[in-house]
Design goal:
mainly alpha, about 80 residues
């Protein structure tokens, strides 16, 4: 649900006051908002592409762990 015009105006006033009072914090908040909106990467934080990327990396890590465990088992068996 979107914000009403009055709510957007109040939010803009709060953002402006924050920028005047603490510019560093305002920059950090803007950076967080940019990351969460997916503006920097072109991906939504929990979108399909991000989920697919994460799934692929998790399976890669699992495969490496299984391979290392198998090699250790073989080393112990042959020792």
């Amino acid at each position: 649900m979107g914000l009403s015009g009055k709510e957007r105006r109040i939010l803009a006033e709060i953002e402006h006051a924050l920028a005047l009072e603490d510019p560093d914090l305002a920059r950090r908040v803007a950076a967080i908002n940019s990351i969460e909106s997916g503006a920097e990467t072109g991906l939504r934080p929990y979108g399909r592409q991000a989920r697919d990327w994460l799934t692929a990396h998790i399976w890669t890590i699992v495969a490496v762990v299984v391979a290392v465990a198998a090699l250790l088992a073989m080393a112990v068996a042959l020792a």
